[in-house]
């Protein structure tokens, strides 16, 4: 997240300590990636990006892993994303209380 005023970045990070601004994360499909990930309390969201030239229509799942690699939360949803397009997503009530220490594994089917 880029801010013109560095003070705003400090305020945002203090008000929302659970937010995660990660780089692009891969899925099991090289044409589909996840960007702009955030998590607050028990929720995680972001943008599923379809870089391919064919629309995606199927299941999208996440596994939340703790610092030891154990799965501490899972969820799945049906999602459609047009070719060379993105779609916002959010999973609610998934165990993401320690976002900065957790890793996210995304899959599409």
Could you characterize what this model shows?
By secondary structure, this protein is mainly beta. It has a single domain (18-108), classed as Sandwich (Immunoglobulin-like), CATH 2.60.40.10. Helix content is 9%, strand content 49%. The chain has one helix at 6-15; strands at residues 25-26, 32-40, 43-50, 56-65, 71-81, 85-91, 103-108. The strands form two sheets. A four-stranded antiparallel beta sheet has the order 1-2-3-6, with no helix packed on it. The longest helix is centred in the first third of the chain and has 10 residues, at 6-15.
CATH fold category name:
Immunoglobulin-like
Biggest β-sheet: count, sense, barrel?
A: 4 strands, antiparallel
Give the helix tally. Answer: 1
Total beta strands? 7
What is the CATH homologous superfamily assignment? Immunoglobulins
Strand content: over 45%
- The backbone outline, from C-alpha atoms, is elongated
Q: What top-tier CATH class fits best? A: Mainly Beta
Question: Uncertain regions: pLDDT < 50 for 5+ in a row?
Answer: 1-17
Radius of gyration: 15 Å
The appropriate CATH architecture is Sandwich
Count of discrete structural domains: 1
Helix-residue proportion: under 10%
Element-by-element helix/strand order = HEEEEEEE
Mean of pLDDT = 83
How are the strands ordered across the major sheet? 1-2-3-6
Structural class: mainly beta
- Terminal CA distance: 30 Å
Name the features.
Immunoglobulin-like, 7 strands, mainly beta, three-stranded antiparallel sheet, 9% helix, elongated, four-stranded antiparallel sheet, 109 residues
């Amino acid at each position: 997240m880029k801010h013109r005023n560095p003070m705003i970045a400090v305020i945002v990070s203090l008000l929302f300590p659970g937010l995660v601004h990660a780089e692009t994360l891969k899925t099991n499909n090289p044409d589909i990636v996840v960007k702009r990930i955030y998590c607050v309390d028990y929720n995680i969201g972001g943008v599923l990006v379809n870089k391919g030239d064919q629309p995606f229509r199927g299941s999208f799942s996440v596994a939340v892993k703790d610092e030891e690699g154990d799965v501490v939360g899972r969820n799945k949803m049906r999602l459609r994303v047009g070719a060379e397009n993105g779609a916002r997503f959010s999973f609610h009530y998934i165990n993401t209380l320690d976002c900065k220490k957790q890793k996210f594994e995304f899959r599409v089917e």
